């Protein structure tokens, strides 16, 4: 009970931060736009990319260890304190650990292996981090609204090539890993770098194919066009576009309800392909053969201090960016599943554009946090694939399914350009998936019945069942938190 | 779509250039800061390659399995296929069934290639 309350409290803190940050982003954008037209792009850059994405990524270093400890029935990181009288020596559920880790990594010795190639060795972590960081520039995080008489949109850049930028820049990250592996002049690092490069380019094929169906359905590669606008958004008199459109729409009074044209409903297969391939690109478990914590020596074995930290933080930035992309492409971006039209046409929202933007921006970040959580849960639930399994999953399963998806989607889009046939096909796929998942769950349920109640406090007991049954006795092993994450254990 | 767009066609790319520049500068600053702040106590043992504790034998610039090269070659073929699909996908509804069949033929030739390399064993990693 106490744990549930604690979690609810921190959920509240998180949402309060999102509301505050989005309100600040819109207000600042409106103010700056008055001084320098186009300047809101720069405030978006500072707030969305530097503050929010980097902030979430650095907090994820703690969140990952905290989630792993919850799932393994440990306490997790709880030692770092901030020495302020107001905090009363509280551990703040371990959050200050990311500060301690950052400080530690910055002040660690930064050594250069004697036989390493200095330039490429230093370029490795930079090329791992910079492309991943720059990716977020094209992800729209909130609607375009009027603030203080100026138009403010919540995206850093809206290039015509949208998704192509994502593919192009994301694939640059492979240079970071292979350069790090090669330049360290270490046999294990070289092998790790080669494994990483091979895995990343294998999954890039599936990644590229997974979104073609979505491009066909929406006839665009621009991310704001995928998100779209609701009907008559803020009195602009436009028709609904993109994922804000309804496939089937009904009205209850003024409240609109229906089946939105979200990418996930049109392209469930595309979503799973994209998620699997992008997950492999992040090189996290179950795809962590390039570098597997303490078990597999990887491409950054020769890196110390903050250079290692750059590799680690780029992994977490990738989680946030990937979640943002999933939300924008498959889960309606910042739109509500229903009631969006009603909300945007309230007199209050029309009058105060920033309020509308803040609400939808918070909706966006809430969705993003769900997918961030999903990735953490998967990372601590699935056993690692063997390297040959990774390669055959990419080439023998994802690539043929991706091709099938492209042409099945194409036929359905041409047959019925209103996308309803595609949505029916998508719903059938989802139904089939649910049937397959639950039937296999029934088969394996005999093995571990009757130890579910202890995990209720975790809020997602479905994943807790996979643990051994002896987990009820809480291990008060406070040190294990330090070993569980990559941050504290390495170097 | 976007009412704030400047008539200048390069305007949308300026924030993108700034974002890319910021990414580069930020990573450079972090790397330089790490080098500047940490202590420097080099020793010959410390700077030797760490190869699981045992003594390093020879340089690391050695040959590795040819499979990785094969994967790189296959990647080129199929990624170029995906690149050809994008412009087609964006104009897909305008091209209609004719474009669909054209692309189906193109993809089918590559599927034949995929079946060939599959049967040849280029995707096998067990041996």
Verbal overview:
The complex is a heterodimer of chains A (491) and B (127). Chain A has 491 residues and is mainly alpha-helical. Chain A has one domain. Chain A has 19 helices and four strands. Chain A has helices at residues 2-35, 40-71, 97-106, 118-134, 162-183, 187-210, 212-218, 223-227, 263-266, 268-281, 305-330, 340-344, 347-351, 353-379, 387-415, 420-444, 461-464, 480-484, 486-489; strands spanning 145-147, 150-152, 246-252, 255-260. In chain A, a hairpin with a 2-residue loop joins β3 (246-252) and β4. In chain A, α10 (268-281) packs antiparallel against α11. The radius of gyration of chain A is 23 Å and the shape is globular. In chain A, 54% of the residues are buried. Mean pLDDT of chain A is 85; it is low at 447-491. With 127 residues, chain B is mainly alpha-helical. Chain B has a domain at 64-127: Methane Monooxygenase Hydroxylase, Chain G, domain 1. The relative contact order of chain B is 0.05. The model of chain B has no long low-confidence stretch (mean pLDDT 86). Classes of the chains: A mainly alpha (491), B mainly alpha (127). At the A-B interface, α2, α4, α5, α6 and α7 of A face α1, α2 and α3 of B.
Biggest sheet of chain A: strands side by side, in what order? 1-2
Low-confidence stretches of chain B: none
Structural class of chain B: mainly alpha
Q: What profile does the largest beta sheet of chain B have? A: none
> Average pLDDT across residues of chain B?
86
Whole-number radius of gyration of chain A?
A: 23 Å
CATH topology of one domain in chain B: Methane Monooxygenase Hydroxylase, Chain G, domain 1
| Portion in strands of chain B | under 5%
Name the overall outline of chain A.
globular
> Which word captures the global form of chain B?
flat
Instruction: Find the count of extended strands of chain B (DSSP E, 2+ residues).
Output: 0
Order of helices and strands of chain B: HHH
Number of helices of chain A: 19
**Would you identify the CATH architecture of one domain in chain B?**
Up-down Bundle
